[in-house]
Amino acid sequence: MSRKLTRRDLIWILPSGVAAGFFGWFGWRTVRILFLKERVPEPTWRDGERVEVARLEELEAPWAFKYFTYPTRFGELKSVLVRLPGPVVGGLSVGEAHFVGLSRICTHLGCTVNYVPDLEAGAIAYNYRASNPFLGCPCHFGAFDPAQGGKAVFGPPTLPLPRLRLEAAEGVIYATGHEEPLYPIERG
Ligand code: FES
User: Fold this and answer.
1) Mutation to probe ligand 1, out of 139, 159, 161 (largest number of atoms < 8 A from CB)
2) Hey, which of 36, 140, 144 would you mutate to test ligand 1's pocket, going by the most ligand atoms within 8 Å of its Cβ?
3) pTM value?
4) Does pLDDT of 7 surpass 80?
5) Rounded to an integer, what distance in angstroms lies between the CA atom of residue 140 and that of residue 135?
């Protein structure tokens, strides 16, 4: 036997529904910020110009970095070269020196990410406690890990930063192409 909803019923049903919706949304958002990140695949390269990025001695130790731009059919791509303590898929190893080249265009909404070498400052600014330097986005505080090939590790972005193909010759590192698709300009 059913009975009609009274005004008194609505007094608790409506706030309960709103609260359930809020906590559901908040839970989903938390899972997305912390966990729903795409893995970094073997790269598919698109050939491009051969551009000198840095001499090897410019990045003497792990976590040294250098910003550069790379010409693409969409225009100059802001990019960063990072020296890593170990090899990474899609990166470059020259003896015991390991590097990765990454786009600096955030895969969330396209802001420019910055290299964050100071972990304490990064924890305060991004609310993200990293175990190594990362690339942080000032727009919505997304973070990407160069040691994982540019994987999104915190915040709204879920896609990794596209990589630049690197080559070395006679002590110089060159960029010779970029990963496809070039997120977020090209959506897969
Ligand atoms: S544009 Fe980078 S986190 Fe939103």
Assistant:
1) 139
2) 140
3) 0.85
4) no
5) 13
Which atom in ligand 1 lies closest to the alpha carbon of residue 140? Answer: 3
| Ligand 1 pocket, residues with Cβ under 6 angstroms | 106, 108-109, 111, 137, 139-140, 142, 155-157
Which atom of ligand 1 lies at the shortest distance from residue 157's CA? 3
In the numeric block, which tokens belong to residue 101? Answer: 């080249």
- The class level of CATH for 45-179 reads mainly beta
- Rounded CA-CA distance 50/52 in Å is 7
Residue 126 confidence (pLDDT) above 70: yes
pLDDT tens-place string over residues 72-108: 999 999 999 999 999 999 999 999 999 999 999 999 9
Could you state, in order of their start, the residue ranges of all structural domains in the chain? Answer: 1-36, 45-179
